[in-house]
Amino acid sequence: MDLNKVMIIGNVTRDPEAKTTPQGTNVTSFSIATNMVWTDKNGTKQEKAEFHNIVAWRKLAEICAQYLKKGSKIYLEGRLQTRSWDDPSGVKKYRTEIIAENMIMLDRAQGANNQSANFNTNSDTDSTQVEAPSDEEEINVDEIPF
Predict the structure, then answer these.
(1) Residue 80 to residue 86: CA distance in whole angstroms
(2) Which of the four, 8, 37, 69, 107, has the lowest number of CB atoms within 10 Å?
(3) 27/47 Cα distance (integer angstroms)
């Protein structure tokens, strides 16, 4: 059994770039930064950012292009894919990307009851499910009687 699954939470580092293939399929690319913070053996706080190239297809590509912008915080699920090509001088180049399958916007949207939206696409079909939050009031943990 094999598994190729990626789950990350991070910030969009550049505005998404939307394109359409010659066959009419929508594709959007952008990148996400994930940060790691730790304390080294000397007690010094260390930070490191990792940058991930993201590619979304079809309906999810349209959604990413429409709603995401530089600085947006998102949760993203997908799979890793490495592609290769020869540059003009004949040197083989490689690029590893995350092919997006599910995206949840974590930013608090203005005018949307301060809730996030979940965008899920199945790569085998063109269908995309949008799970909008319900209109129920948010539960405050401090108000639970037990």
Answers:
(1) 21
(2) 37
(3) 32
